[in-house]
Amino acid sequence: MSHIHLDPYLPSKTLEQVDDWTQDFNLTIVLSKDRKSKLGDYRRLRGDGHLITINHSLEPYLFFFVLTHELAHLYTFSTYGPRVGAHGKEWKQTFRSMLLETLDKYPEELQEPIRSFARLPKANFMASPELVRHFQYNTLGPNEAYMEDLGFDTRFEYRGEEFLTLSKLKKNYLCQHIATGRKYRFNCLARVKLRK
């Protein structure tokens, strides 16, 4: 079964790979509206059906990366059964193998970060700053920045709340919620809105 509807969302010459991976499965892939909590999702349906949803607005290489992540769930479930951990060792091994199999589908500057990520795949690609920078730097909106780009004592907005940067920790930033005075840690690649 071809997933030709995905062709405009995928990097060139990757649809054939997706079709090869999915030909033996009763799989539906649905384009989803943007979700802040996740980029993609895999679910087993009743009977022998499977469903993958992917945020429709992802940059093509990120779309392919996320689809590979979700297909690794499908393969893991089909190979090892439903009792394995969602992001356990079986999934990591499957995802690693699929990433390395398709390494040449990515631009040269992205191949080393993906190879590095594949050594010990995480559930969320946000664990790899190199991948985040490549996939998301070009998608910052007006008045948006990453935490690591802010100076200290800078006010910013995150999910409608106002914060102040205080200090840098090992990998995160310590910030103070303006309204309550409570302190929170922010990932260095958290996307925030600059205050005017």
Describe this structure as you would to a colleague.
The protein has helices spanning 15-22, 60-80, 89-101, 108-119, 129-136; strands spanning 26-32, 40-44, 49-55, 144-146, 155-158, 161-168, 172-177, 183-187, 191-194. It is an alpha+beta fold and 196 residues long. The chain has two domains: 4-139, Zincin-like; 144-194, SH3 type barrels, CATH 2.30.30.30. The strands form two sheets. It has a six-stranded antiparallel β-sheet, with no helix packed on it. It has a three-stranded mixed β-sheet with strand order 1-3-2, with helices on one face. The longest helix is centred in the middle third of the chain and has 21 residues, at 60-80. The termini are far apart.
CATH architectural arrangement of the largest domain: 2-Layer Sandwich
Q: Average pLDDT, to the nearest integer?
A: 90
What global shape is seen?
Answer: elongated
User: What is the H/E order?
Assistant: HEEEHHHHEEEEEE
- Main sheet strand line-up: 4-9-5-6-7-8
The fold-level CATH name of the largest domain is Zincin-like
Poorly predicted regions: none
CATH class of the largest domain: Alpha Beta
Strand segment count: 9
Radius of gyration: 19 Å
- Terminus-to-terminus distance: 51 Å
- How many domains in all? 2
Strand content: 25-35%
- Give helix % range: 25-40%
Largest pleated sheet: 6 strands, antiparallel
Individual helix count? 5
Give me the secondary-structure category.
alpha+beta
